Amino acid sequence: MGEMTAPGSAPHKERLLWLVAIGFFMQSLDATILNTALPSMAEALGESPLKMQSVIVAYALTTAMLIPATGWVADRFGTRRIYGWAIALFVIGSVLCALSPSLPFLVAARVVQGVGGAMMLPVGRLAVLRTYPRGEFIRAMSFIAIPGQVGPLLGPTLGGWMVEYASWHWIFWINVPVGMLGLWATWRWFPKAPPVQVRKFDGAGYALLAFGMVAISIALDGMSGMGLGMALVVVLMVFGLASLASYWMHALRTETPLFPPALFSVRSLRVGLLGNLFTRFGSGAAPFLIPLLLQIGLKMSPMNAGMMMLATVTGSMLVKRVAVRTVQHFGYKRVLQVNSVMLAVMLASFSLVTVGTPTWLILLQLFIFGGFNSMQFSAMNSVTLKDMEGEFASSGNSLLSMVQMLAMSMGVAIAGALLTGYAEMWPGDVDDRMLAIRATFATVALMTLAATLVFSQLETDEPVRPAPDGGDA
């Protein structure tokens, strides 16, 4: 049963869009403002800048773990209440991050922040879906997406500026006034809706899926020196894989699984999800590695490194305008196979950067990389969701969101493990750390090539239709 908008809430429809946009802006800004600040945070906390990936992994993994439950939680407790709690937890997590005296404390604070972030956008999108008729929904979602594009534009430069002229703590303090505005607006304008019929929640399946994701991600992060012994890493990996396999068998015999196995009968969804996974193992590590290359390897200031990252955002935004026409002209299979190779080539090109590389050439590399990255995400997200209809549309979208965050978490964890391994091969000064960063870029580039094998499974004449909710998140 759908959740109907309560009488009298119609005048607040446009304000609801602004409210959901605030949440989207906080998330997108937080995702990009942090990367530039990681080297300075490492120095302040007495940690190696090559071992700060757990700060990113904690947030992404928490988000991935909670996404499958957000729809049920919103139905059970109401979208208005859960959206308010999401903003509140995001703000509380931000405050705890700003007050962090150590890396373990910061990682725990990022988990709290991730709980809020996991619920914010899905629940906001659900409220818009239930408030706007189908004919107006696309326009409404397009409006909400605008702040999501502004966040990455401001994030790297703002993060660099704050670190250089204030302190890294301000990248989290900035969320507090925005979040408080969001809480006040939620209380004033978020539509009050009558309770809905709550479907049965697959608690056993959720536990198996969540444990599997967490165990595998912690095992990967453990390889980079979380203090876990190799034996424990192997045990966690085995139990994680066993848990995911058990979830699949559980889903086949339960009436209300989190993700119906019939979803995977759709070829485009299967290929799109696996392609997302393997692509993000490589490209998902780039936002973590590029600031390290610029600040640790090339000794740029945080402000200058943030300004350099604007080239990536510019390339991404320009390509986004032609992505649909490109796919329509060449087809999904050809675009994704060729683009996967070009994305790997651009990642590998960063392994050739040295202290003597001209700044204009690095800017050109970042610009081209941003373009291929945007094309990849737009095309593979669209091909994943384009054949999702009816009851599968919501499940397919949630599954894609979960895989995206999980793959990003695993990609950053793998990059951290590679950095640690290469750094141990070349123990020494900053020049040796530069070698470790360059070798990691070469390795993740090679990993990205694996996606071409996945996308070769697409039909050559795969029809091109817009996805229900594509984007390039």
Determine the strand fraction and express it as a percent band: under 5%
- Architecture per CATH nomenclature, i.e. the level-2 architecture of the largest domain: Up-down Bundle
Number of helices, where a helix is a run of at least 4 consecutive DSSP H or I residues: 18
Looking at the structure, the CATH topology of the largest domain is: Growth Hormone, Chain: A
**CATH class assignment of the largest domain:** Mainly Alpha
CATH homologous superfamily (4th level) name of the largest domain:
MFS general substrate transporter like domains
DSSP helix fraction? over 70%
| Category from helices, strands and their pairing | mainly alpha
How many strands?
A: 0
Q: Which residues sit in consecutive blocks of at least 5 with pLDDT less than 50?
A: 1-10, 466-473
Mean pLDDT: 83
Order of helices and strands: HHHHHHHHHHHHHHHHHH
Count of domain modules: 3
Computed Rg: 21 Å
- Gap between N and C termini: 29 Å
Instruction: Describe the sheet with the most strands.
Output: none
Please render the helix and strand layout as text:
Elements: H1 13-45, H2 53-77, H3 79-98, H4 103-131, H5 134-165, H6 170-173, H7 175-189, H8 203-222, H9 230-253, H10 267-283, H11 286-297, H12 302-320, H13 323-330, H14 332-349, H15 359-385, H16 391-425, H17 430-448, H18 450-455
Offer a few descriptive terms.
473 residues, mainly alpha, Growth Hormone, Chain: A, 3 domains, disordered N terminus, disordered C terminus
